Amino acid sequence: MPTAMENTAKSETTTIRRGRVVGQYAVLVLHWIIILNFAIEIIYGSYMVFVVVVPDNVTGPLFEAAKNMDVGLMTTRRLYALEVWVATAGLAIYLAITEIAPRLKLMRKVDAD
């Protein structure tokens, strides 16, 4: 029959394990929130550049219409485009650090063994 001290130790171990599991889920949720935030920013910025902030009667790439575009409209469009590039680079760096690098490290370790 287990003693009171053994029961207490077992209870503390179970509590620690539950805390780790909850912590792991919290980190996973935060991870996906960060990824979704980047993805939404990329989609929103692309929508603004290619659909909303366009000169009259132009669809798709600007080509010659860029010569006759208002400076304020061009600046706004470029700022949204820059925002998309920053979000894309941020997502790439985040995924490289959190997903790709750990998997490459694991693959190299398995190959070495």
What key phrases describe this protein's structure?
2 helices; 113 residues; elongated
Question: What is the gist of this entry?
Answer:
With 113 residues, this protein is mostly helical.
Description:
By secondary structure, the protein is an all-alpha fold. It has one domain. 81% of the residues lie in helices and 0% in strands. The chain has helices at residues 4-52, 71-112. Helix 1 (4-52) packs antiparallel against helix 2 (71-112). The two termini are 44 Å apart. The relative contact order is 0.08.
If you average the pLDDT, what whole number results? Answer: 86
- The number of distinct structural domains comes to 1
Percent of residues in beta strands?
Answer: under 5%
| Span of the ends, CA to CA | 44 Å
Draw up the topology in text.
Elements (H helix, E strand, L loop, with lengths): L3 H49 L18 H42 L1
Helix pairs in contact: 1-2
